[in-house]
Give the backbone structure.
Amino acid sequence: MMTKILKNQFASDNYAGICPEAMQALQEANNGYSTSYGDDPWTAKACDALRDFFATDCEIFFAFNGTAANSLALASMCQSYHSVICHETAHVETDECGAIEFFSNGTKLLTVGGDNGKVNLDEVEHTVRRRTDIHYPKPQVLSITQSTELGTLYTPEELVEIHGLTKRLNLKLHMDGARFANAVAALQVHPKELTWRAGVDVLTFGGTKCGMPMGEAVVFFNKKLAYEFEYRCKQAGQLASKMRYLSAPWLGLLQDNTMLKHAGHANACARKLSEKLSKIAGVSLVHSTEANAVFVEMPEETIAKLRDKGWIFYTFIGSGHCRFMCSWATTEEDIAALVSDIQALIS
Ligand SMILES: *Cc1c(COP(=O)(O)O)cnc(C)c1O
């Protein structure tokens, strides 16, 4: 018997199930015996597919989740006495339980502000230049999130500016791309324009929120930084013995432009939801809807009633407003149902 435990929800894109293409790829990989720990044909093909996707040679590793991928990536870019500059709402700062500091043996996160979830470059420069003495954790990396925690995007032009700054300040550049596919789909540029051509040294590329069962790829465009990374993965419990099940879903998503189609669908759903919600009196949009997240403000009373009605959504992200995320699985009916419930409960 099939058990469907929840109605469709907008709490997070990780509430959605596995997309058919990832499932199919998993099923195809589930074919008899194979060599383990990444020494299998699916993993080799997934790495090649990622190199094709970015149109460059790069080193690739697969981790179970984003926290591990971010932490190990940043640990590989830093010594323990270094610091990583990030936005105050960055997932690495607010939602990873100190994993960056833990896996890097003490590397410190230094936060900066900035409008729309994007780092303010003057603050980044100030954070680097305000101290040059030995008592200060030496700034080594700028970490940015694309698309951001507030559902906004760094444009290619903004990335060029960031690249200029990181070069000038001698910082390495890390990108948390838990929702990188949403950014590529929204900006409609080649993935290389948002990564290695923009000076990104290491990208944490999210699979989970785009329809995989689990898994993120750590992509080293700066291959020197990947030195002995496999040992970090193993030590951190991130070397899957049946690696083919972590890598094969990438094959399903990277063929026929599937990943960008799903991400584009999620973005389009968010745009629709955003337009409909902003027409309701009493609801106001708090961040512009540029990827697959919609942030709105509404009366506390409506929030409570909406939760009583069975809707699950977060109010702890970023500025503390209501966040509704769309995914590959979101439907027109889901959007209509949420909009009509909000409309009914607010009046
Ligand atoms: C979801 C997410 C991650 C990864 O989170 P895990 O729960 O560790 O997989 C990383 N960064 C951002 C911005 C995210 O939204």
